[in-house]
Each structure stands twice: as C-alpha cells, then as structure tokens.
Amino acid sequence: MKASGGRYDGWTSVALALTGGYLLLVIWPLIMVLINSFAGGGEFSLAGFEKFFSSRLYYGTLINSVLVTVCVTVLALVVAFPLAYFMTMFRIQGNRTVQMLILASMMSPPFIGAYSWILLLGNNGMITKLIESVIGVKPPSIYGFAGIVLVLTLQLVPLIFTYLMGAWRTIDVALLEAAESMGITGWRRAVQVISPLLWPTVLAGSLLVFVRAFADFGTPMLIGQGFRTVPVLIYSSFVGEVSVDKSFAAAVSVIVIAVTLGVFLVQKYLVSRQNFSMTALRPIEPSRLPGWRGVAVHLYIYGFLTLALAPLIVVVVSSFRNTLYGQFVDGYSFENYLDSHRDILRYVGNTFGIGITALVILVIVAVLVAYLTVRRKGMLSGTLDTMTMVPYVVPGLVIGIALVTAFSQAPLILTGTFTIMVIALTIRRLPYSVRSTTALMYQLNPSIEEAAISLGASKFRTLVRIIVPALAPGILSGAILSWVTIITELSTTLFLYNTSTQTLSLGIYAEVIRGQLGTAAALSTMLLALTMLSLILLMRLPGGQRELRV
Amino acid sequence: MTRIALRSLRKEYNGQVAVPNLDLDISNGEFFTLLGPSGCGKTTLLRMIAGFNSIEAGTISFDDIVINDRSPAARNIGMVFQSYALFPQMTAAKNVAFGLQTRNVDKAETTRRVTAALESVHMAHLKDRLPGEMSGGQQQRVALARALVIRPAMLLMDEPLSNLDAKLRVEMRDTIREAQREAGITTVYVTHDQEEAMAVSDRIAVMNLGVVQQVGSPAQIYRNPANRFVAEFIGKTNLIERELHHRNGATMLDLGDGVSVDVTSTIPSTITGRVQVSVRPEAVSAASEGLSAEVVAETFLGSHSQIRAQLSTGETVEFLEFSRRAALWERGEKVSLQLKTDMLTYFDAESGVSIMHGAQR
Ligand SMILES: Nc1ncnc2c1ncn2[C@@H]1O[C@H](COP(=O)(O)OP(=O)(O)O)[C@@H](O)[C@H]1O
Ligand SMILES: [Mg+2]
C-alpha cells in the first residue's frame, strides 16, 4: 500500500488512538502494579519480595502452583493424546456428539467444576455419603492438591484435545501409508512418526494449559482449602483476610507475570526452532476398529466424557434440590430459582448488558488491530500488536488488581462502575480475539482490498463494505467464543464489581462463598444453559466448528 | 481514454532497486503489454501506474497531468487481478455494481449498466452466483466486467490468465481483446507468456531486470529484436558466432562450409570483428547443399517435427520441418542446411546489442 511507507493518513490516527487507549488502560495500570511492588510505604524497597521469599507460607504457594501446573499440563497431555488419536483414526459411535460435549465441558466455567466436585466428593458430597453408608469409612478428601489437579485436568484436557484434533487434520494419509510401507504401524507409528509432526501443536497447547492452570483462581479458592496457590495468595493479601498489604500483593503479581512470561518465551523459542507447515491433500479417514480393541477405545472415550460431564450434570440436578439455610436437604422443587429470582434477574441483566457491550468493543478493536498489523505493517502497528498480547501472560486476577490500583483515585475513579467491568473483560479477551482475527485477515487476498480501492472506494468504505463482510462468518464465530469466555470470566472482575454490576459468574462465586449452595447451583445451571445455547448457535454457523479453538 | 507517460521512473523496495530509471509512452486506446520473465518488475510498474506502489523518483502522467500523488481510488482505473479478487460475499451482479455505487450512479442506471457489462463478457446468466460457485474463467469474466463497467480511464491487468488452464486462456484472451476494442480503452497488460503477449497486443515492452529492452509491435519485436535477450525471450532462436569481413567495400559474413552472406546493406560498415547471428528455426531448412551438419535428434510433433542438428563447428541448430517424409531422421544422419539470409539478425558478440541498420536503442 502506498501509505505503508510511513505516510500519515486516517489509519495512522486509528493506530495512535488505539495505542493511546492501550497505554492508558493496560500498560499504565500494570506499571502501577510494578511500581507498587517496589514501593513499600512510599519509597523504593524490596520489602514485598523479601517477605515473599522469607516465609514458606508465601514462597510455598509458588511451589504449590508450579506443582499443580506441571501435573495438570502433563496429565492433560497424557489423557488428551489418546483421545485425539482414537477420534481421528477410528470410527467412534456418536463421534460428532462426543466432540461437541467435550467442547462443552471445556467452555463451562472452571469454578463450576470445582464447586460440583465438592457436591460429589466433598465432606457432605453425594458420593462421599454413599461410600460412607455402604462401607462405613470416609473416602479420602477431595480438598487440596488432588482436587485441584482433578478439576483443572478435566477442564483443560479438551483444550489440548481441540489443538491436537486441528493438527491431525493437517496430516496427510500418505505419511501414514509411507510409514506403514516401512513396517511401522500402530502405536509405534503414532509415537515415532506422528508425534514429531504434532510437536509444535503440543507445545502451543501445553503453553495455554500451563498459563490457564497457573493463573486459575476459582478452583484452588473453592477446593484448595489449606493448599494455597499463588493466585489465592494474591487475592487474600489484596483483600486482606489477615492484613491488607497491597505492595506485597503487587510483588507477588510481578513474580507470577515473570514466571508466565518466562514459560511463554521458552515456548516461543522451542516453536521457532521447529518450523514446518503442512497441509493435507487427503486427510486421515477414520477406520472401524473391531473386537475388544474397539470396545476398549469406546470405553476410554466415554469414560472421559462421563468424568468431564459429571460435574455439569450434578450442578443441574442439584439446582432443583430443596435447601435449608443454603444446605441441600431431601426433595426436589423450583425453590432455588423462585426464592432468589430478583437476584437472578439482576445477574442475568448485568451479564448481558456488560457482556454484550464488551463484546462489541472487543470485535471492533480486534478488527482494527488485525487490519493494522496485517495490512499496515510498520513500527506503530507492530507495537500495538505486541501490546495487545500483554494480557496473555498476565493472570486475570492481576489485571483486576492493576485496574483497581490505577482507577480508584482521582481523576479517574472507575471502580465499581459498568465502564470498568467492560474494560476489564475486553482487555482480558483481546489477545485471543486479535490473534484469531489476524489469522482471518491473513487469509483474505490483499487484491480484494485493492480491487475495491481501484473501483473508487475509500479505505474506510473498503473496510466496512468489503473486508468485514468477507470475514463476517469467521468474525461471528470468534465473537460467540469470546462471548462464552466473557460470561464465564471470574478472576478479572473479582475486585471490580459491586452489587449493581455483579454478573452471573460473580454471583455464583459470591453465593458459594456465602454458603448458599442452592442459589449457586441455580445460577450455575443458568450460566451453563447460556453457554450451551451459544455453542449450539456456533455449531450451526457455516464453518463454525472449525473455529472451536480458544 | 487516456495517454500514459512514464518519465525517469524509479522504484526501490527498502533500498533494493526494482526499477532503476524507466521511460514509456502508452497511446490513447492502445493495448500495451509489459512482457518479461518473472521478477523483472512488471507487477511493480503496473502497481505504480495504479497507485498502489510508492514512486521513488520520476513522474507518471495521465494526459499530461502528473498524478504521482493521486490516490488509487481517484485515478479512475479498472483493475483485473491474477487471483480474480472478486468480493467473496457478493454475487456477480453485486460485484459489478460496487464501483457504480461508490460513484453514486442511480439505481436504474446501475442495473442497466451491470446487465450490459455482464452480457459483454457472456456472464449475464450467472449474475446471481457467488464467486465460490463459479469456475476460474467465469470469475475472471466477472472481474473484467467489474473493471470495465465504471468506464475507467484505463484498464490495468496483471497476469489475468495465469490461473486458467490452457484452453480457457486462449478463449479468455479473445474475450479480453474484444472487450478492450469495443470500449476503445487504453490498456496495460502484464504477462510473462510471450505467445499471449503477441496474440493480444498492439505494442509490447519487453522488460528484464527492471529495464525496458525494446518497445514495438509484436512483428517488430520478433523480426527485429533490439538485443540478444529479446531475440531469445520472444520465440525460439539459434545463436551462432561468426566473424565479419570487409572486402572491396562490401561487408561479408562467412558462415562456414563456403557459405557467406553479403550484409553490406544490413550492417553499418563501421562495425568489425565477431558478431552473433540469430537464426530463427523457420529460417533453416534441409537442402541438397549448404552448411553441413549431423542430426542429433528429431522430436515428432504430428503436423511438424523439431529437428536438432550439430554443425561442423560444434554449434547446435534447431529447425522445423513439416511432416512429409515416410521415415524420420536418423541420429547421425548427414544433412545440409540452407539459411534464409534475409531472416537473420545480428548482435554485437560482447554487448549482445543489435548492430543492424535502424536498430532501436
Ligand atoms: N513488496 C515487495 N517488497 C520487496 N521486494 C519486492 C516487492 N515486490 C516485488 N519485489 C521485488 O521487485 C522485483 C520485481 O518484482 P515484480 O514486479 O513482482 O516482478 P514481476 O511481476 O515481473 O514478476 C523482484 O526482484 C521482487 O523480488
Ligand atoms: Mg508479477
């Protein structure tokens, strides 16, 4: 393009405006956190960091977090690899439904999983009670390390699974046949021939699992009890269960960001060393697997599905149980829904109001940033692209803290407002949206845009009339996925809401903490229903299934 | 309809020179082709005319008005791309209508012109199809209609036929030529295919490494190439190297085996020394006497054969022969070759530049 040589035009203004907004709303708040981490009592000090590394009570949380994260990442890979392998190679009964349900379990809010495993295996859980009444002994506790790993693994297996399924589709049958002709078949072929081809995908998927598990707050908060992870430590030192120490919370946040960034850079380096691309002329056709092997494969897949869906079913069923002072008692009715219908209406209203506003802004910003990075390569758009990736390595909780820190004093007092909720959710999702929109933009032939301009259309008209409509199916699918993650987001908004901006997921969290299990189950059911409806809508869109990546 | 003048034009990509210094004049209503091997700068030049590439030096004028700083949208051009570049979400008719809508043409007029444009490329019956539902050839017809419907000052086409199969290419190039004649529109056409260029063009500019080697009609370029590059790039030719002799005011070229040509009237007498002779295959025929050679191979192609023979000097000469003999040539068979001396062209052995009277450049 003519102006890509650095000429000033309307697009430069857009780039400048976006950069300015990003500096104000993301970079500056994060810098505030950084400053706070080094400033105990108004002057430079390393007190926050010293405190963290001085007591096992604190640095132990980092060890816990790393332990959980590594276990979850490895386990998720070990479970997901055979799952993806079987689904690609063999004809599975109800294949499409299975895929859909696995995705549904991935998109459900993680803290609902934690909460419903408590309902199943907690001190008063259904299974706990059942086992106790049959053999008279209490089964081992779900709380702590094992519970966190169980919940997060079940939650994140689908994520790696989706990545792997995508990668399998790029493998040409000819590769498998070539291996077979050399006498390499079955599991040896999977490990020796296919695994190396999937390596970049495995790395990318693992990173995502790592980042998610490391930053997850809801699960360890609900099910961790004495086993505290870093996000829980940040939370408690920021809200001050014991004592408020914001500079300590900031220091811990900085440590978390540093670890995530480190892992991110290592992954980038590993991927850059392994650069190849494939497209399958003839993708793998699943074949029928007869006999006991077929049965075993089905058992594996349906076994996983049962484990993954159990929490969701439990929540839905529980929502109809009677409660007394928040605890479940015998009998079923709609009372959980009816008794708190006012709150429910408020939560749902806020979820839609805040969620849709955030979504609209998100889509517009993502399209603009993607356009700038793909079509107007240059310093400014390069910077913008890098900046939008920042929240990727910053846990949601820390984004929340940063926004609270930056916007709770004059002249910008935004905490507790509708605006700050929208800003937080937009920022949180932006790295993912920008990346998927950028990928779409790269697929669009640049000649199409030039054709429009040669026909006399302005650049803005070209964007609105040609580019966006041409990408509309992809943008719409991406928007639905973003919508699902926005309505299920918890940690980012935890410090920012008040009763007038409380959403469904915040409501669930509050009710669980308050011990109102019935209301929590009813809210969770509604959130799940909303998620499922969105996913079904997504599946019905042309090409929607391809978009199912997070 | 517009005259295009390029003066001292220069293009660099990040300091890398793609076009060093280029002058060209394209006349009103002319079908002008930029021809050259891949990477020689054809696309670069076309996109400079369109306004999609920056200009490092020089000027581009349309009808004597310098338009260097005019945006592509304001240049009133019709463009046809190799990849068709139809708007994927719009039907054929909507694609064609787009340019009229940006020009605020009223509805009835738009419908009328869209229909006429689609008819002129034989696509009216598919006006409600989406690009994804059309073949490559059909898409390119729609793209042509879309470019022409706005009545642009000029039509710019970058390898519009490269993505089509051989048969469609021939069909489509006739459609393009027809539509261009009908509209009488100045056209700049880019291709690397010399046969395609010869078939459609009024004039051709042969380019290499960002430099125009020769501008002329297809016949001029073929019969009188400005240099060795053009001779070899346009059609096939055999190059042999010989010495000029000046005797009694006449210039003679000794071809060997007692055959010599009097080139007094074709080559200026000031030129001496070694020259390269370009011998087109059709200038060679097997005869009872002439240059003695030995057959290396014959490729039988049905209506004719392509025969490769080696001269006694070791040089290889290729020529064509219409199929008429019962038997094919044998490898090693002796043959005498006669050259049509009026079809030979001559180049300086060192520089490769044509040394003939009236040669360009
Ligand atoms: N956008 C670009 N950036 C850098 N170099 C380019 C770019 N476009 C073309 N070039 C270079 O300019 C030269 C001419 O390219 P091009 O005009 O595309 O040739 P053609 O169309 O004749 O094949 C080539 O050496 C090519 O590598
Ligand atoms: Mg080109």
Output the keywords:
heterodimer; A: 550 residues; mainly alpha; MetI-like fold; two-stranded antiparallel ribbon; two-stranded antiparallel sheet; 22 helices; B: 361 residues; alpha+beta; Rossmann fold; OB fold (Dihydrolipoamide Acetyltransferase, E2P); 2 domains; 6-stranded mixed beta sheet; 5-stranded antiparallel beta sheet; 8 helices; binds adenosine-5'-diphosphate; binds magnesium ion
Detailed description of the structure:
Chain A has helices spanning 10-37, 47-54, 56-89, 95-107, 110-121, 126-135, 145-168, 173-181, 186-215, 218-223, 230-239, 246-273, 291-318, 335-339, 341-375, 379-388, 396-406, 418-443, 446-454, 459-488, 504-514, 517-540, and strands spanning 39-40, 43-44, 321-324, 327-332, 408-409, 412-413. Chain A is mainly alpha-helical. Chain A has two domains: 15-35 and 344-448 and 475-550, Orthogonal Bundle (MetI-like fold), CATH 1.10.3720.10; 66-228 and 282-312, MetI-like (MetI-like fold, Orthogonal Bundle), CATH 1.10.3720. In chain A, a hairpin with a 2-residue loop joins strand 5 and strand 6. Chain A is globular. The two termini of chain A are 32 Å apart. The model of chain A is unreliable at 1-6 (pLDDT under 50). Chain B has helices at 42-50, 92-102, 107-120, 136-148, 166-183, 194-200, 218-223, 228-233; strands at 4-13, 16-26, 31-35, 57-62, 65-66, 77-80, 154-158, 186-191, 203-208, 211-216, 238-247, 250-256, 259-262, 274-279, 284-287, 291-300, 304-311, 316-322, 334-339, 345-348. In chain B, a hairpin with a 2-residue loop joins strand 1 and strand 2 (16-26). The mean pLDDT of chain B is 91. Chain B has 361 residues and is α+β, with helices and mostly antiparallel strands. Chain B folds into two domains: 4-229, Rossmann fold (3-Layer(aba) Sandwich); 237-348, OB fold (Dihydrolipoamide Acetyltransferase, E2P). The complex binds adenosine-5'-diphosphate and magnesium ion.
